[in-house]
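cron nightly-structures :: item 1 of 1
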Amino acid sequence: MERKIMDSGKILFVMKCMLAAYLLTAGLLLLLALMLYRFGLSERVVSICIIVIYIVVTFLAGLIAGKRAGEKKFLWGLAMGCIYFLILTAVSFAVNKGMGDDMGNLVTVFLLCGGSGMLGGMLS
């Protein structure tokens, strides 16, 4: 019985962490859109900024998860990065109605999300 309560607490924490991560992502992407509108940024700059946003957000999610976990912090950070990537990929597939030509970018984003989440967990 006590294990079920602990497991539901962990699931609730992961859900809260992902909600915070996606709210932060939305805010940063809105800021980027404002900068794009205001300054007319190039496509390359916008792509780099989007990647930086993914890295920063998953790093912070891993940092928060690692601080709360206490032990196996890097695994919690890695889990946050991977869950963030899975949600991001699912939404992208739903919006684009398929995969397209971005398989190489998909692997790169997975490595960046997982790695930065794990780094956040290790530094917590």
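cron nightly-structures :: done
The CA atoms of residues 65 and 76 lie 6 Å apart.
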